[in-house]
Design a protein that fits this description.
alpha+beta; Beta-Lactamase; Heat Shock Protein 90; five-stranded antiparallel β-sheet; five-stranded mixed β-sheet
């Protein structure tokens, strides 16, 4: 998914590019109109000057070119005039041997157009009809200007404007990216803070470093973290209090069972088995409470720190046996996407069962099978489980061996947690250790 910063950069850059193109188009149109108007104005002034320089000399119409601009003298200078009389044509010296193709006009009639002139260059022409109204003896005076020189000037001005605008456009786009990068730095810091929350390094977000626009969201998030932490602490305390509170009634019941054994030994043995089961369940819950400790509500399971903590605790619980527990993590995966307390209970149960059934070795393998999946396996070198009995492993309260509380209640809790998070739980025989292999596929 495209980030907000990149999307803003694209939108703002696009808007600036569009605005620049529109500005260039308008500037080019205005410059072209101004260029055309300036030429027309100059041609109108030339018409007036030529009319003023025209006089009758011995009954013959002549144009005194000494009163005209010197541009009309050099051949093909770019500025021309031509007077078309009924019987003859008078031209500026600049036309040399060329003649303009003129359409005869009536008196006071004007015409503005463009045509090819000397050297096949484009010209702007302005003609006016001279004479008495409704008289057949009218003349047509035309002035013309070569457009090539003006177009060169136009190209230079527009090219300079284009270069300046492109430079400003690139500077503004670079400025947008720099400003957005600086503006989103606090968001990047929040991402880092959330990563530390997942790792359990901090307990809440530092509000003072968060921009005012998203500070209410961070404050609400901190309040939710605090509330969740209190709920977790309350639940853990209630679990510990319940487990400790049950010890006294169980001790009394133990005495009663021992007294009952004198008169009804069979009933006493059955009750003693149930009491032992309750004792073990209480010890497991107390051990779980010790394992979880003071955890942050947003923390995820960290590797290998949390697994090392579990392994050390289980070594203390099973101190009478020497179990070698190893962790294989070739991809150096640093965390599991599960709440740390749930993860400690999930893998605590798995490792506890593995420690109980293992002869000497337990192996934890962590690897990624797909770009968005993690495969975690817990293997032991114990006797394993027959394929026909593997479906019973997660049945609550079911024990495959009455002498050992192993693959029963603990694995049912494992299944409940996996179902809650959408993990895939599978049981098979270990290919390397020949014991039970519990596989959990975690889709991130």
């Amino acid at each position: 998914m495209i980030s907000i910063r990149f999307k803003l950069s694209l939108w703002l850059s696009g808007l600036i590019i569009i605005a620049t193109l529109i500005g260039l188009f308008l500037f080019e149109s205005m410059l072209r109109d101004a260029f055309h108007d300036s030429i027309i104005n100059r041609l109108e002034e030339d018409l007036e000057h030529i009319i003023i320089a025209t006089r009758l000399d011995d009954g013959e119409l002549v144009i005194d070119q000494s009163q005209l601009s010197s541009f009309y003298r050099p051949a093909y200078s770019g500025r021309y005039f031509q007077l078309n009389l009924p019987d003859r044509t008078m031209r500026s010296r600049s036309l040399w041997d060329a003649e303009l193709q003129i359409e005869h006009l009536q008196a006071q009639q004007k015409r503005v157009w463009q045509a090819k002139g000397p050297k096949n260059n484009d010209m702007q022409l302005l003609s006016i009809g001279i004479g008495a109204p409704n008289s057949p003896n009218t003349a047509t005076l035309t002035v013309a200007q070569d457009l090539s020189i003006g177009r060169n000037v136009f190209s230079e001005v527009f090219g300079t404007k284009l270069a300046i605008n492109i430079g400003m456009l690139l500077a503004m786009i670079a400025g947008i990216f720099i400003i957005l990068r600086q503006s989103f730095k606090p968001v990047n810091q929040i991402q880092g803070a959330l990563a530390k929350l997942r790792e359990g390094e901090i307990a809440s977000l530092a509000i003072s470093q968060i921009p005012a626009e998203i500070r209410p969201l961070a404050e609400t998030y901190n309040e939710l973290l605090a509330y969740t932490a209190k709920q977790i602490e309350r639940s853990r305390n209630n679990l510990g209090n319940l487990s400790h509170g049950l010890k006294t009634p169980l001790a009394v019941m133990q005495q009663q069972v021992e007294a009952l054994g004198l008169s009804h030994p069979d009933a006493a043995i059955a009750m003693q088995q149930q009491l032992d089961l309750v004792h073990k369940m209480i010890e497991r819950k107390l051990a779980a409470a010790r394992i979880t400790g003071d955890m942050l509500p947003a923390a995820q399971l960290a590797i290998p720190k949390d697994f090392d903590s579990l392994i050390q605790t289980l070594h203390k619980v099973h101190h009478q046996r020497h179990i070698d527990c190893s962790i294989v993590n070739p991809r150096q995966i640093s965390r599991i996407p599960i709440h740390r307390e749930d993860g400690m209970e999930l893998f605590g149960n798995l490792l506890d069962n593995a420690f109980k059934w293992a002869s000497t070795q337990v192996k934890i393998s962590i690897d990624d099978t797909e770009p968005a999946a993690i495969l975690l396996q817990v293997e032991d070198d114990g006797p394993g489980v027959e394929p026909a009995q593997m479906a019973l492993l997660t049945a609550r309260g079911t024990r495959l061996d009455e002498a050992t509380m192993g693959h029963g209640l603990g694995l049912s809790i494992v299944k409940e947690i996996c179902d809650q998070y959408g993990f895939e739980l599978q049981f098979s025989r270990s290919e390397t250790l020949q014991g039970l292999n519990v596989s959990i596929l975690i889709n991130q």
